[in-house]
Specification:
The protein is mainly alpha-helical and 241 residues long. The chain has one domain: Four Helix Bundle (Hemerythrin (Met), subunit A) (Up-down Bundle), CATH 1.20.120. It is 71% helix and 5% strand. It contains 6 helices and 4 strands; from the N terminus they run E-H-H-H-H-H-H-E-E-E. The protein has a two-stranded antiparallel ribbon with strand order 1-2. Strands 3-4 form a two-stranded antiparallel ribbon. Strand 3 and strand 4 form a beta hairpin. Helix 1 packs antiparallel against helix 6, helix 2 packs antiparallel against helix 5 and helix 2 runs parallel beside helix 6. It is globular and about 60 Å long. The chain starts with a strand and ends with a strand.
């Protein structure tokens, strides 16, 4: 017989706790220290709004929601098709958030090209593009089920791998963005390394790293563990327990 693995319960719990902590930290940073998102010699309120929306949509909308979509198959009751539909919808919301988060970078006063010069920006474009392709393949596969079962079984491991890789890449991209922003603030605006804002940004980075590990571990952990109810004896007789 098969039973639910008890190891998933604490993993799912800590995933929600760490996700909540990440959401609170990014909200605190974006709302309480929004003056840090203004570029020098600029007082445009519209630009400030776009700058604040970028981390909110990329962290809460893109990373946290896509992580929740990954965990859907671990805890959501119901049929497999129902879980797949919820997974697809949540990933669609995450994709829309990621696209909007990148769109906010297009609204800078220096134009589009000026906002795509760093490792963070390049990784962000690659990550969202890969995520979009992954979602489109999943969408077509979900609505078009005429493929042979053997083909679907061969594609599934790659779908899982690319999905987890993209999620990890999204977290790494966010980490590079936090490092880039904090370095800019400390060198250009003389922000202290031990001030509250620095502590919040560093804590946010640690929270994202912890969340990524928990989500991936929960995703690859076996959902069920098999219990052997029959024992083989030397005389080749089987006795049921």
């Amino acid at each position: 017989m098969a039973v639910d693995s008890p190891s998933l319960v604490p993993l799912l719990f800590f995933a929600r706790v760490s996700g909540l902590a990440v959401a609170m930290l990014v909200l605190l940073w974006a709302l309480a220290f929004n003056s840090s998102f203004l570029i020098p010699n600029s007082s445009s309120q519209e630009y400030l709004i776009y700058e604040v929306l970028h981390p909110l949509f990329m962290v809460i909308g893109f990373i946290l929601i896509s992580g929740e979509a990954i965990l859907v198959h671990r805890w959501l009751p119901g049929s497999r098709n129902f879980k797949k539909s919820v997974h697809l919808c949540l990933q669609g919301v995450a994709l829309a958030s990621g696209l909007f988060g990148i769109w906010t970078r297009f609204q800078g006063e220096d134009g589009i090209v000026a906002n795509f010069y760093s490792l963070h920006s390049w990784m962000g474009l690659i990550c969202v593009s890969l995520f979009g392709a992954q979602w489109l393949i999943g969408f077509l596969s979900f609505w078009h089920r005429g493929e042979a079962r053997t083909v679907r079984l061969k594609v599934l491991p790659w779908h899982v791998f690319v999905g987890l890789y993209t999620y990890g890449l999204a977290v790494v991209t966010a980490e590079t963005g936090l490092l880039e922003k904090l370095t800019f603030l400390q060198t250009k605006r003389n922000l202290s390394r031990y001030c509250p804002e620095s502590m919040i940004v560093n804590s946010l980075g640690l929270g994202l790293a912890l969340l990524c590990g928990i989500v991936i571990l929960a995703a690859v952990s076996p959902k069920h563990q098999t219990l052997q109810t029959k024992f083989m004896y030397p005389d080749a007789k089987c006795l049921s327990s």
